[in-house]
């Protein structure tokens, strides 16, 4: 269907788009209307999974569950949204009243954030009356997709730069406000040391890092004046950007200024290099600092970095990196082929059979088997009702619309993630695609269910 | 500097992150503190531009100005944000009070949304006291970057599918709530016919399109029952998804059902195909519909489409397309190399000289020269003070912190954009990179200023 709505003119700044139940696809509402009218409100099971690994990727990192649970707990159609919707063609008063009363009353099971996962493995399952479970599709996909995308990218950076401080510098190139905020969170969860995004510090308690821009140096009459004024404004924690004019000359100025700054009680913590051949500049700058008695001053680098560049700079005398665009847009794979699919309705397993898009039916569980060395050996994709060796990865997160536990601390999620990275076998830690993919076995019972669903589906398709 | 803040625990759902002045890089605040303390509050000129065309791109489309003006008019630090910030190390009470009083009081000139632009051309200029002009960098870059990115991508889709209806289906893969909303707007501005994102219809008056998901068909006992129930819930405007089981069988069912549906006053507007070989299926489906007397029923296709796929489907009997992931993440180029740079401070032109990142200094204007055929011939990048042939593209948009005109209607922006696409010379309309780039001349006066700034900068760098 198509409609040409009139825009509503907000008197005050518009509210958070992520908090509106209208941040969804129109087809969710058109389907809901049909479900309500025909009484199709029995229990439905949907699962979210990613179909395949893009490019050189070997694994994914689950993230975004916290945002999904917040969304589900807060889901309701506001009066203003409903007033607008009731003026659109195709939606009658009875439908609007059903929406007004709608709350999410279902159950959620999910892999905890920071869990490694692989193609076809569900990381979240929703069980709820069909209209509810359907309505939440768009936002659940958006939240899990984006946070898992960025956490997976960030984990590659962490693997590429062991022992180095990594800081998210990506807010300005992130795709909008929520992306910037959640990218900072996903990167920290995956092992970054912090972010430059102030609001992410406020919302999530993530450590904040910041220095100065080239414009700061340019606005002053000399680089030395810029350094001195910045240092005096931030005596406890000064980082100086030294590449505005000439990187090595900038480092030499820092050395010359150091005695005076120290007399004033100022501690220069680091210098930052943001352009040119970072390895070459870092070596020269390190030598200038060391020979000038500034061994404590660390070298921080930024500028167009991704995990490949970080790996190439592993031997350079650089203590930390700012990673921007490549991280927050997941430049090598800005979107994942993921889906939230109906697996069961009214107690009967379902399976999508569209060409190239078949899915495993029914309620599933993922079991992880570790080898004797403590590394990941294989996963088993099974029916939820099967007993299998290995730890089940999907855990209860919400029952009857209420979360079962408060949000875990970011530090807890981050620790889980870093422990999981330790479990990754060497071939999967590579930035290149491993010769053989991680083993995910499908149990005979699940295969048998798929066959049974296919048989039934062929009958249905004839009708 | 680095700090480890405590997260603030919101009692109610958190507000729009895009409305918080803390949605910025920490370095903006550290620089502001130094500027305030040292009285560096004279007038600064910053310009936003993109450095280079990525991949196969031949042009950009300016978008996001409306969001920038809204942001600047509404800019203020809220009490809650300031209370949190005052608890962070490095920010004293005097600084917090300066932030509390801060408003944007500057001027903005910009290319209207929907204007074509090319590398190194400023599309927006801010003139304001240095702390204000600096602070707004992060959000201005984020807003202009994302909307221009998506509008540019959408314009390629429009060029690839002349005369076809294009609909944004991307919300679930967009990078967060604001991205989904603004992608719908940017795509419509660039010539798409509408979006599936309901909230974009409400906020911007964009036409809405929606059908059903495979889950809808799967949840019913038969495809025929699913079609009939959907049609009865949406009799005025029915689109049926026919590829859940067997695409051609689905089309045949629609034909068989048509007499009964027509008796009930139901109009089937279109069928949708979402998988397999879309061209092949569309031909077969078109034949089935035509032979069944359903010539009025249109064929709509979706599923992993980008501008190359649209071009390849140009001859297929498909009336419209849903475009999702590739559009909203700008898959071939998910980030642009763009910057917001200091061009002048306290009346003196500035230029960044970092390796590989030099910029043109001073206040600039872009003049567009059309050929005798009405097509774009060349642009001239000049000092603002120069007289040049051709229409100046940067226009006054805000003075002393107040916008000069209300937001133009989306229809007006869209009409401008489509007229501009008509002005594109044939080589630049191609999906491949044109053999020679569009000509952007730099005036002798601007080159002379750059040389002068370089001479001065060499002196400054010595200090």
Brief summary of the model shown:
The structure is a homodimer of 463-residue chains. With 463 residues, chain A is of the alpha/beta class.
Quickly count the helices of chain A: 17
Average pLDDT of chain A: 94
Name the largest protein-protein interface in this structure: A-B, 137 and 135 residues
Which structural class fits the helix and strand makeup of chain A? Answer: alpha/beta
CATH architecture heading of the largest domain in chain A: Alpha-Beta Barrel
How many E-type strands of chain A?
Answer: 21
* Sequence of strands across the biggest β-sheet of chain A: 15-14-2-6-4-19-20
Structurally, the number of domains of chain A stands at: 2
CATH level-1 class of the largest domain in chain A: Alpha Beta
Strand content of chain A: 15-25%
Q: Per CATH, what is the topology of the largest domain in chain A?
A: nicotinate phosphoribosyltransferase
Name the assembly state: homodimer
Globally, the shape of chain A reads globular
| Uncertain segments of chain A | none
- Major sheet of chain A: size, sense and barrel closure? 7 strands, antiparallel
The helix content of chain A, as a percent range, equals 25-40%
Write out the CATH superfamily name of the largest domain in chain A.
nicotinate phosphoribosyltransferase
Structural Rg of chain A: 26 Å
Distance between the termini of chain A: 25 Å
